[in-house]
Structure prediction request, 287 residues.
Amino acid sequence: MIDNYNGKVLVITGGANGIGRALALGCAKRGADVLIADIHGDEAEAVAGEIREMGRRAVAVQADVSLSEECQKIFDRTMEEFGRCDILINDAGVSNGADILDIKEQDIKWVTEVNVYAHWFMMQRFIPQMRSQGTHCQILNVCSIAGLITLGSAPVYFSTKHAAVALSECVYKSLKASGADIDVSVFCPGFVQTEMHLTDRHRPQRFAVPEGDPYYTSEKYQKFIEFNKQILDNGAPLEPTVEKVFASLAKKQFYILTHENYDELLKQQGIYQANRTEPVDPSLLKK
Ligand SMILES: NC(=O)c1ccc[n+]([C@@H]2O[C@H](COP(=O)([O-])OP(=O)(O)OC[C@H]3O[C@@H](n4cnc5c(N)ncnc54)[C@H](O)[C@@H]3O)[C@@H](O)[C@H]2O)c1
Prediction:
């Protein structure tokens, strides 16, 4: 795992806000140079400015990571600016709380393409580069506790995060088997204090809310946003949570879990699966 960030090059998606921004600043504080890719170019540039003030190099790239060609753009810019990448963090993610019978097809596609496809597109480009460098590299995929357990809600979020965790596990195993000097970790937090309830503002144009569509202004849809805000506000504080990520990376952990109240649910999930019984009861979740 990366324990010395000095002079290392970090490429991070979703680095303009929330967890991604805190991870980008945390790496820069430890001496890394940073390329921040985000769908909001101006917000990514603001974070790049903060990093330059810390005395590190930083570049912002406006990109929609759900598109393969945009991930190629991020890769090309990284090579142009830095000629290498030592740490890749796939952080960009979006959510939707609609139930299976309510959710719009475009939202299934949007959340899946950002939360899962982007991890594929980025790793497919950066792993060969990391291999060719012959230096020790790190990939950190920001997933969620929703990638390890299920509750009875937000099926698109839970299913995409499960897919992203599975992808990380496969890549971790295949890189280890091939002897590549690239570590992979997955960060699976519970709720963290960010503005993720405003996720709809990160929609690419092709998934924009159709003008006048009553579904998106319905009480049910708005209630989800309000509910999400409440649980995010009551989540773990951002900075200490991100510091725990750096501590876990230093301990060479693949699974980075920062919210202990899910531990019992995680354990029971494994037991229920091994016993081939019903999925674990979410009421085991400690408040
Ligand atoms: N906040 C939490 O409670 C929580 C819990 C578990 C997991 N996570 C995960 O952590 C990650 C970051 O979440 P956050 O809370 O910081 O959210 P956030 O909404 O504050 O930040 C997400 C960032 O991703 C960017 N982004 C979204 N779609 C993009 C796209 N198509 N292309 C490029 N950039 C895009 C946004 O512009 C934003 O800067 C996500 O993957 C999320 O699923 C968050």
Q: What stands out?
A: The CA atoms of residues 28 and 55 lie 9 Å apart. Strands lie at 9-13, 33-38, 58-62, 87-90, 137-142, 182-187, 255-256.
